Amino acid sequence: QVQVVESGGGLVQAGGSLRLSCAASGRTFSSYAMGWFRQPPGKEREFVAAISRGGLKTYYADSVKGRFTISRDNAKNTVYLQMNSLKPEDTAVYYCAGALAIPGRIVLQENEYRYWGQGTQVTVSS
User: Fold this and answer.
1) What is the pLDDT of residues 72-114, one digit of tens each?
2) How confident is the model over 5-29, as pLDDT tens digits?
3) How far apart are CA 95 and CA 101, in angstroms?
4) Contact between 41 and 28 (Cβ < 8 Å)
5) Are 37 and 46 in contact (CB under 8 A)?
6) Please, which residues have CB within 8 angstroms of residue 4's CB and are 6 or more apart in sequence?
């Protein structure tokens, strides 16, 4: 079992940057594909980015491609989301999630993620 805890959210002006971190417990972190999702105010949760177990493969939602970067450090049991050129529409609660996966696989479907954090609020002011 894996427990994940997000951190790094906050208030930032449009055009600014934030780096979210997701710390995971357990000795099998490297067995999990990881993903970031977000839930804007009044909307459903949506996919943001995903990374394979080893970190060599990544995938992004079109809305964040070129601005966000997902990465992981398996030695530290941590996955990151570097967010640059932030826009007001990026305002949301951001969630980290983990899914058991074979090496090299990207997990895109929300219902395949078994372990979820509590979320961290990101607010981008205009």
Assistant:
1) 999 999 999 999 999 999 999 999 999 999 999 999 999 999 9
2) 999 999 999 999 999 999 999 778 9
3) 19
4) no
5) yes
6) 22, 23, 24, 25, 96, 97, 98, 115, 116, 117
